[in-house]
User: Which sequence fits this backbone?
């Protein structure tokens, strides 16, 4: 669409602004239909963002969007409308705020709960610089479950600075919001403004206002701006997720994130099916998630076993320690989580699960390059941050059938375990799975061996293999399956001189390094393919994988070269 | 001391219990004077723990101690009094609760904020097993700053189970407790029981009671036990940190942790001095800590620059994001933190600091083996979990002088930076420090080169070097200094065949693996010394380093062997 002049929002009449809201809503809907992205959260925040641009002076004033999945209107209003059709495409606009993309994006986000802490830091820097701009944090009610928000609120009074917090309350995170904090917000709404809770933190509470009604919003923001002179303010704006798009309004969970790709077989569906079957047989099996029941495939499990299913909200750390407690009490918890969000639990995986050798299984979904969501959502670190943790076993199945088999066997393995898998794959077939054992998929012994970790790498390796066979080059192709413990027996038995490792993960600290260390002094040469030491931006997964290090061409070229070397 | 029979606490008269409290207090004081350990927190919790053992039936009932630094009385009352003199010694009792040590320790702790989540998990497992034991979480007021506690409280009502939370409120964490949550607790104490805050979370509030008075405590716990039949209960016990030991009462911060070692030169003192000097010259410099101002050397900085010093409480994640916000606002934040606690910020280091390339410097104290606190406090993972993060530079100074130089230069490096250092070291001297450059310390080129990371490794390498020189073996010894970015130019210029790496860190994902990866295909052989894939228990640091992988003997033997190989 045409670029929107910054002055346009300032000078428009109210009715013109309302028309603008409709235009933007259509543009968002149209673009997300093509490019994918976050639909319902963005549709719900259109008026709120217009009102912010009307009342405040960006980029002089600063706004931090928590999670950032509601920033499309902000992008459209800050000189990026003409580029909006490139949303989430390689080289195009990011689906999240990005400092390097625009001076209007003062702080990048992607994970939940950071906005108040970041806004406090920016505000404190402003104070020290003796500047006077206004700093705003826009936070969804879902993030009010996250501990980081409370750490920030708790330190707010001690920091003695001034920020405006906009609580964008649509009663949902990805799933409906639950728990004590949610009830508090519901209570506040019912009483039309209980000032007390926030007063304890030294914050003046304003609202609630209808966050989809510009007539209410603009004066409320003007009042908030006034009140900011004397201290921190929270404006409680009640919005409707998905507003303006009937299906999105009635099914906000289904339209939280829209994928532009045709549906393929999802690992999450298999997780749900197998976990139900296992839970049927073993009463110790329980499931834990952090506000993502559906996208992790657990809807049926939650329905069938409500007493054994725990959705704790956007609280990855609590989910991990709760699972540890459940395991300490004799249960067999399965905690399903996206790779990028599991990072939040790094300390708890070490301190609570692995140190105590508690049999918790992490089902690490969206592992590897995830594509259009970009840098904050790539799952390319887990093999590294998990491999370094003692007592943890790490598995990457070769296909969905093997994933099922591993889930079935995991109940009896009595060890902390992480199973990492991409979003989609093929059902395939699999034989027996023995703990800690590699599997030779094809080939005969020569000078070269490929050790491939996980379905995506095996798929690439298979293509390389087929091509090599046609060229008369022969080697063994191995399904690594257990990234940890490594199959030391197999490694010791290998006669090959050249070992090629493939992993859908950064090379630093990853599978290839483990193999190289295990083979140090053996005289074998290890060549590792994986991602470099850089953040991988948004784009199509397959393109990114190729571009950033898992290119069939390059792997084949290396095989050819090693073959020629002999 | 003699073992205390479990029945003793059950059957004693109140006056006998009071005498027991004095006996235990003396035993704790005597033992900590010899073995080191947490003094004031344990002295403050003597009566509370006796009362718990009087009213509840352990190990059938379960108690989770948050942080665990107040568990000595519990150990003394649960069959471990006779072993108490072995506290924190290798092979002896741990200073923290440990599942493998006793069935009375149902859940291990060490880091703050986990107890309520873990207790909820254990309670939920109990419910599912249709058992009826009581589950208790003992949590200090300092932990009520930590976000994990709020995540647990928030999910408590949804979990619909019953636990008893004992709020052990001494108004301090390691430093005096600050912030909104603290003010709420103070308010509650003043009003003698404001039920509302906790009622919102579905918890019945009891108290406050004097947590050092058995006459008040025992009936209060009995009441809590009754109330537990109908739901979750929080008993607010106000205790006095360090009670019974006058110096500890008047100086609870100084006696929070007692070290059995004679004072040596501390890196933290140098941090404080340099940071003050830098801040004097550069108004952008600010300091951030998470409740550990003194032990990190920042007391003077906080006094001299109160506007530029931020102690956020036990909130490592918030501290990191606040630092990111400050940097986004143009400041140069220095966040000082122990290696083991920095783990909590893993996601934020990636998502907020490094992805945005914000110039935040992490001053990572207590890196490497830390000794008597044991598994939960060893700083042996940071090189691994930091090395895998793009855009982050990582430095390990060879001595305190070099640490000072690096701090001075860091202001102009404009990059996310982590400086990791052990608690103590030698002042020494240092020349110029260039970004990303190794330094040859001594020796001439031969077949062997040692790359040593950080003061402790360099000290060992120096001993190995001296011994080798006496035996006529010659090699180069390099101060790695920059673990990241690696000095690729130097690595490429090395003519040596054998490369020996030393790091005070686990080998998995550490410095040695980075070097091996950088040298892959070069034909050089890399031999790495560091820690194995295991949790390192408590003991004397120097013994542990030797035992777990940094033994001068073994390194020398390897050098001899490589020399003989030629």
Assistant:
């Amino acid at each position: 669409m045409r670029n929107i002049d910054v002055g346009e929002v300032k000078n428009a009449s109210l009715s013109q602004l309302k028309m603008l809201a409709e235009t933007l809503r259509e543009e968002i809907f149209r673009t997300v239909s093509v490019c994918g992205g976050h639909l319902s959260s963005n549709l719900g925040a259109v008026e709120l963002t217009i009102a912010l641009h009307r009342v405040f002076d960006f980029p002089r004033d600063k706004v931090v969007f928590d999670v950032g999945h509601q920033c499309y209107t902000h992008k459209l209003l800050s000189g990026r409308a003409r580029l909006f059709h490139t949303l989430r495409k390689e080289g195009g606009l990011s689906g999240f705020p990005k400092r390097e993309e625009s001076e209007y994006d003062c702080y990048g986000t992607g994970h939940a709960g950071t906005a108040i802490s970041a806004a406090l830091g920016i505000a404190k820097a402003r104070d020290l610089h003796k500047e006077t701009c206004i700093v705003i944090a826009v936070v969804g009610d879902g993030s009010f479950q996250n501990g980081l928000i409370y750490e920030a609120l708790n330190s707010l009074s001690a920091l003695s600075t001034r920020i405006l917090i906009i609580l964008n309350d649509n009663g949902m995170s990805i799933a409906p919001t639950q728990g004590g904090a949610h009830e508090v917000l519901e209570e506040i709404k019912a009483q039309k403004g209980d000032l007390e809770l926030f007063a304890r933190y030294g914050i003046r509470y304003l609202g609630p206002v209808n966050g989809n009604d510009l007539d209410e919003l603009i004066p409320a923001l003007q009042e908030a701006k006034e009140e900011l002179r004397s201290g921190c303010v929270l404006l409680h704006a009640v919005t409707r997720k998905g507003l303006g798009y009937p299906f999105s309004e009635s099914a906000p969970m289904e339209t939280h994130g829209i994928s532009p790709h045709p549906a393929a077989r999802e690992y999450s569906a298999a997780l749900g099916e197998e976990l139900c079957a296992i839970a049927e047989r073993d009463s110790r099996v329980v499931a834990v998630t952090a506000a993502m029941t559906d996208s992790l495939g657990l809807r049926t499990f939650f329905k069938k076993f409500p007493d054994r299913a725990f959705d704790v909200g956007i609280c990855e750390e609590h989910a991990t320690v709760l699972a540890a407690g459940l395991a300490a009490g004799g249960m067999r918890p399965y905690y399903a989580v996206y790779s990028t969000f599991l990072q939040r639990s790094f300390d708890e995986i070490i301190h609570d699960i692995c140190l105590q050798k508690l049999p918790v299984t992490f089902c690490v979904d969206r592992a590897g390059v995830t594509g259009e969501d970009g840098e904050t959502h790539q799952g390319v670190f887990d093999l590294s941050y998990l491999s370094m943790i003692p007592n943890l076993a790490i598995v990457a199945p070769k296909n969905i059938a093997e994933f099922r088999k591993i889930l079935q066997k995991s109940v009896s393995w009595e060890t902390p375990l992480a199973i990492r898998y991409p979003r989609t794959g093929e059902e395939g077939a699999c034989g027996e799975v023995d703990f800690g054992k590699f599997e030779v998929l094809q080939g005969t012994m020569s000078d070269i061996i490929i050790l491939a970790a996980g379905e995506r790498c095996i798929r690439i390796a298979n293509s390389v293999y087929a091509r090599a066979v046609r060229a008369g080059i022969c080697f063994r192709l191995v399904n690594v399956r257990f990234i940890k413990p490594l199959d030391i027996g197999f490694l010791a038995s290998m006669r090959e001189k050249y070992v090629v490792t493939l992993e859908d993960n950064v090379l630093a600290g990853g599978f290839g390094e483990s193999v190289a260390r295990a083979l140090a002094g053996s005289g074998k040469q290890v060549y590792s393919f994986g991602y470099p030491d850089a953040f991988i931006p948004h784009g199509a997964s397959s393109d990114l994988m190729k571009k950033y290090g898992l290119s069939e061409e390059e792997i084949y070229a290396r095989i050819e070269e090693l073959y020629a070397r002999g």
In short: The mean pLDDT of chain A is 93.
